[in-house]
Q: What sequence folds into this?
């Protein structure tokens, strides 16, 4: 369930970047900060896990 939330929030962030040129992660956590990098890593891990779970689902 947590992975679903992370992926959904990441999708919203990418939508904001595309439509309004606003990066919510950087706005909240700071541009180039350790927390921002950690958030991007978390999104990447969640995305890989989500892809894996979709591929192995029967």
A:
């Amino acid at each position: 369930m947590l992975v679903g939330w992370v992926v959904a929030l990441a999708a919203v962030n990418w939508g904001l970047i595309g439509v309004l040129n606003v990066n919510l992660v950087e706005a909240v956590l700071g541009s180039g900060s350790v927390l921002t990098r950690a958030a991007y890593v978390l999104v990447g891990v969640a995305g890989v896990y989500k892809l894996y779970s979709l591929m192995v689902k029967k």
Observations:
- The helical segments are 2-20, 24-29, 34-56.
